[in-house]
Model the fold of this input.
Amino acid sequence: MADAASLRDARAALLARTDVVGADLRAGLTDVADRWLTELLGDAPDVALVAVGGYGRREPAAGSDFDLLLLHRDGVDVAALAESIWYPIWDAGVGLDHSVRTVQQAIGVAQEDLKAVLGMLNARHVAGDPELSAELHRQVFAMWRRDTRKRLPELVDAVRARTERSGELAFLLEPDLKESRGGMRDVNAMTAIAAAQVADGPDERVRAAYTWLLDIRGELHRRSSRGTDRLVKQEQAPVAAALGVADVDEFLRRLFDAGRTISFATDDSCRRAMAATRSSRWGRRTKPVRRPLADGVVEHDGEVYLARDADPATDPILVLRAAAAAAQAGLPIAMHTLRRLAAESAPVPEPWPEAARDAFVEILGSGRSAIPVVESLDQFGLMVRLLPEWEHVRCKAQHNAVHRFTVDRHLVESAAEAAALTRRVARPDLLLLGAFFHDIGKGLPGDHTDAGVAVMPAIGERLGLAPADIAVLTTMVRHHLLLPDTATRRDLADPTTVELVAAAVGDRTTLELLHALTEADAAATGPAAWGDWKARLVSQLVSLTAATLAGEPDPVVEPTLDPAQLALAERGGLGVDVSGTQVTIVAPDRSGLLWRWAAVLALHRLEIRSARAESVSGSAGPMAVTVFEAAPRFGSPPDIDALRTDIRRAYDDPADLAAKLADRERTYAADLPAPAAPPDVLWFDDASRTASVVEVRAHDVLGLLYRLTRVLADHGLDVRSARIHTLGADVIDTFYVVDARGAPITDQSTRQVLDAALKAACQPS
Done:
């Protein structure tokens, strides 16, 4: 009997079987629905029940709707029949997208509604009169092919708009499997373009990628009562395990690889769709452009092809020359050319000839145009063939919200950013190569910097670089984080800071390369990795280091405070300035100010993203200047007057701050997940001769800076300066501290006590 309970029970029994996954699960859900709907419709004449969309493609998941079209012939009253179908579906708890139309009415809707016609292109007869379903199929496809010139641009615009809304699947930590660029809807768009007979349909690689997304979606729906298509972080490990993948990183690599495969193919399909709308099929068009670009490489109709006499088998550098020509011209490499290069290219001799190395640097030096070219080489396995180390970073996830891209794409983006900075350095080729390889160790075991340093000599030798150039590149890999880490975590006024950087860098040429690499790396990482404050600190560190390398005596440290902040300190007394997300607090210096200010900001729901504390001379004596970058944890900004009042009150009487903050912490701590790694405390004895440098690395939580600085104050330590650095969900807080005598902390037992107290402070109370 086709009632709601029978459908509900049959679906539940199937979904309870964890041995039924992937294509078997989709087939089972389709068969259950088809049999039930066929029985529900019965033998009603002159009607047909047609599945469209995902159900029409036989691709349902546990949370998918039934997309149904009830077709009927003219003059047939089907109102009662429709209700007898729709209501049992709703009663069974299944979502429903439904319509009741004649064939001509359905075609009329399809002519006006892109979503409707895309669904009907996947129409599948389920029950009733098969001739009605067949007639709909014939007319929809005829209409789609007839109206291609109008509908294809509309479809391409929809693909682009969806990318703008949902981002790119391959570079999202929690992607939408359906809507993101490289997701399931892109494959459906490719299929629709192929139905217009202007491009090939999805090939074997795309179909395999699509199947993997369907498999993931199937298990995600099975675990979610809401049928979500967004693969959130907490579901990734269980879904991976259900599909037989034990390692989450490998699971994500396969997911991101699938998204990249689909994105690349979708771009080609959309490009051909737009070219078709300009073809002679709809009238006269200009003769396709054909012009030489390089030896054996030509442009034809906006794409890069091999010349007629080019032979990849006897010209091993042709692949790099073609890619360089494409990047410099800003053109895509034709799919036919990529297939031929992948199938026929001879290996590049090792070490690479100068022409091969020059072509590779030319690719990187083309800036943003290099990105699609490198992606096309990667899609056809040519990047790994050229650089075997590429395999380790391909589609490797970076579990950090600061990073926008997978490791391999980050390297390409870094080189593209570096291309705009080549005029600032004496060796632009080394800048481009350093940017491209600086994180090459991230795909290997152990610390990524150490791993990169270990493999860089072999890479340099393969590229045919001189030993001195290999040494510079290895230094760039070893110290690619040196400048930003030092500038944001160390006191630039301490001579030891600059001395250590100068010793590590060694010469002015390497220093300017590292400076440009730092900027390119940060720009490629994401907006949170760079800003005016960090840029100013890095530039100051570079200037100081350059002076030291040049042997200039006692380089002058520029003030890190701006004129307004210095003027506030000069006036003396307690002053508070709030400008956007920057909060500056100036007060007569005394012990324990930093923890007071941190507590007040936390009580006002301000999340401290960075902070720096300085001591300057004012008219009334030493003044403590603390500059915070802070934004509301959620909701609207706090009341500025109330914030100022509480800061002034805390300066005189901080007694109730701890209790208030503890209450606030308990409110928010209950629902917080455990951090992925425990906190760590590090001491750097070579970072300063006048103070101890202690660094706390921990998961960011409400009130953390308050608790850490309170621990230091309670143990009788004076914070000479501080650098607070937030990286995604983690913080690295660095403190220059001295004891009551003004001396560094050298006693190991004292350090052990502080270590334990600081680690304990990293846990909410």
User: Anything to note?
Assistant: The longest strand covers residues 606-618. The two ends are 59 Å apart (CA to CA). The chain has a mean pLDDT of 91.
